[in-house]
Amino acid sequence: MVPASVAFIDPATDFTDGLRVLYAYHESFILQGQRLLAMAEAISQQGVGEETAAEAVRLTAYYEGTTRLHHQDEERALFPFIVNKSFLTDGMIERLALDHEEIDAHWAKLNEVLRAPEQIADPAQLLALTARFEKHLRTHIERENLDFFPVLEKMLSPDQLAGIGQRMARLRE
To answer: What is the pTM of this model?
Structure first.
């Protein structure tokens, strides 16, 4: 029996530093991306079973919660704080916001399939949608971790990072 819904568990537990919140999400996304790919691969090889259907429901709940909150953290708590500070960060913000739109579009297509795992008729399509979504999200995370966050670490003081973390915490109230 596939559970009707699964409770969302926030990957961030400490909001004293806004960048640490974002890093916590990134670590979680990488781990869950591996689970997502493994689930899609299992379904493509063996079809949908009780375990893979339950995993699809768990992962759907995870991505529905984390992707939305992570984008809100960046777009509502972080980006407004640093916009118009430099041409470099403004360009990065624009690229990352476009990534968010693309990630959301990829998720919407994958989510349609995962919401009813027992009805998956084309495992190859599931595998392709999963690989596309996971790759785009992972590339976005790498861009942030390697290019964007190091700039922010130099730009923002510990007090500013704490204030951004507090804004993120308020988004969850």
So the answer is: 0.91
